[in-house]
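Structure in, sequence out. Go:
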């Protein structure tokens, strides 16, 4: 799925690459960087939907999508491209926050392909793009005949709709695709005029209301806790060994002292017996 290339070229002029290295370099620790997941719950004009994102599917895509939803970038934005049996596309926000807007327009590298996730099934989500490493903020939800998607380098799934798919299927489709394939809105005017363009010329399009994000780190936290517990156990084992040495040192020293006393007494008694025998002989 592609963005509008002309709009993309203009919008990327001031884009700043905002890719973060999320690898865990702790020596000996389990790899937990891809374990995070997120539940995104949104109210829309057609009803609520719930999405589940998986970092293991697409690390860069997951990070960008989750952050944009957390920052409210998609709140009140429209599903501007709704093509029956194909897809729903969205991702041009109306934020006035310059920093957030610049972040949304910056691009991220493509993620490795995940053949086991293909073909696309209904409800799966991916970023739209216009070429290699072009993903920014636009994404789509697949409909039931989108199985041919996933071949372009930017079309790596990062999540899926897990609840409210019927609401997604009920999004208004009367405008069809964007020109020249349909009579839907063009991306340029959405960027330039924002919501007013949609409301005045495409008032029936559905939109997001607000969204909330819950990051799920159970697996990562569990692995981290395993490492932490192992370290604590190892430290405790070392301490116990030292304490054991100290505990053992006291009885050993005492025993040696007692043995020396006993030997001294035995030797002393032997000496006295010799002296007595010698005394008896002389008398």
């Amino acid at each position: 799925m592609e963005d509008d290339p002309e709009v993309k070229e203009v919008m990327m002029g001031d884009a700043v690459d905002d890719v973060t290295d999320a690898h865990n370099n702790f020596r000996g620790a389990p790899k937990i960087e891809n374990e995070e997941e997120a539940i995104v719950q949104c109210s829309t004009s057609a009803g609520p939907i719930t999405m589940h994102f998986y970092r293991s599917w697409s690390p860069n895509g997951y990070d960008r999508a989750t952050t944009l939803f957390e920052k409210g970038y998609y709140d009140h934005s429209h599903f501007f491209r709704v093509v029956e049996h194909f897809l729903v596309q969205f991702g041009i926000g109306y934020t006035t926050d310059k920093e957030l807007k610049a972040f949304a327009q910056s691009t991220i590298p493509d993620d490795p392909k995940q053949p086991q996730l293909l073909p696309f099934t209904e409800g799966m989500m991916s970023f739209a793009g216009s070429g290699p490493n072009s993903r920014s903020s636009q994404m789509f939800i697949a409909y039931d005949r989108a199985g041919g998607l996933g071949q372009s380098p930017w079309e790596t799934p990062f999540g899926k709709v897990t609840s409210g798919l019927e609401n997604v299927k009920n999004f208004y489709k009367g405008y069809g695709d964007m020109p020249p394939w349909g009579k839907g809105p063009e991306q340029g005017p959405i960027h330039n005029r924002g919501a007013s363009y949609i409301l005045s010329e495409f008032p029936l399009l559905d939109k997001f209301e607000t969204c909330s994000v819950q990051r799920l780190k159970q697996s990562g936290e569990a692995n981290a806790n395993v490492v932490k517990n192992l370290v604590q156990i190892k430290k405790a084992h070392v301490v116990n060994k030292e304490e054991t040495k100290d505990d053992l040192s006291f009885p050993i020293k005492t025993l040696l002292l007692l043995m020396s006393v006993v030997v001294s007494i035995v030797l002393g008694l032997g000496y006295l017996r010799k002296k007595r025998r010698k005394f008896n002989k002389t008398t």
